[in-house]
């Protein structure tokens, strides 16, 4: 493959979005932020060449890893230091049932340097399974972390912000430059901590309706919500909910999005 780069005897596969972390200072900071412990079931997504796997596994008794690349999974199976500590799940994390790893009462703690090309849908997949997860630490494009953490009235605020904050507390942890990776990506990265809410602050009656409200609103983010949501809620209904129809989607709080979604659920239109 002409676009692949060889690193430590492994070819970085562009289709998997592989960029391997190699900066030891950055790695030490990430592991410190994760703070591995045996009081939870630790799970790594996309261990790659083991940059995080090795230091995390050195601090705990056992680690689950989910790896799609067969060559990398095979390397880990024969790793002299790691093989006895790992349960290797050769699978697509986007389709993986993370709850199946909970074989006892301990919660899951999930971490990984996520492939940029699937990071957003993968997080949505994990949000849906967040009930059994204590926390998640992910390396992502800095732009994605900015969107996860953004509040109303900012350009970065959008569907990802609302849905992430519906499920989790979002805490940016660390900025990481391109030089920490081989091959170096063209963008800056950042580590984020996602802590699922023990109790949802604003529960949606039907999560599908919240998805729909956010999708339709932010697909037309320059329009007022009077116009972007006209397919399912009237101006009068918005006013009755004490929400100004002249606001744009980026002006609405999470609570207001949930209020509209719950109104929609109550109409039986979802």
From TrEMBL:
Location in or out of the cell: Cytoplasm
The Ribosomal RNA adenine methylase transferase N-terminal domain, residue ranges: 26-198
Alphabetical keyword list: Cytoplasm, Methyltransferase, RNA-binding, rRNA processing, S-adenosyl-L-methionine, Transferase
GO molecular function: 16S rRNA (adenine(1518)-N(6)/adenine(1519)-N(6))-dimethyltransferase activity
Enzyme Commission code: 2.1.1.182
Catalytic activity: adenosine(1518)/adenosine(1519) in 16S rRNA + 4 S-adenosyl-L-methionine = N(6)-dimethyladenosine(1518)/N(6)-dimethyladenosine(1519) in 16S rRNA + 4 S-adenosyl-L-homocysteine + 4 H(+)
Residues annotated to bind S-adenosyl-L-methionine: 19, 21, 46, 67, 92, 113
One Pfam assignment: RrnaAD
InterPro entries assigned: KsgA/Erm, rRNA_Ade_diMease-like_C, rRNA_Ade_Mease_Trfase_CS, rRNA_Ade_methylase_Trfase_N, rRNA_adenine_dimethylase, SAM-dependent_MTases_sf
Catalytic EC class: transferase
Family stated for the protein in its record: Belongs to the class I-like SAM-binding methyltransferase superfamily. rRNA adenine N(6)-methyltransferase family. RsmA subfamily.
Function per UniProt: Specifically dimethylates two adjacent adenosines (A1518 and A1519) in the loop of a conserved hairpin near the 3'-end of 16S rRNA in the 30S particle. May play a critical role in biogenesis of 30S subunits.
The protein's name in its UniProt record: Ribosomal RNA small subunit methyltransferase A
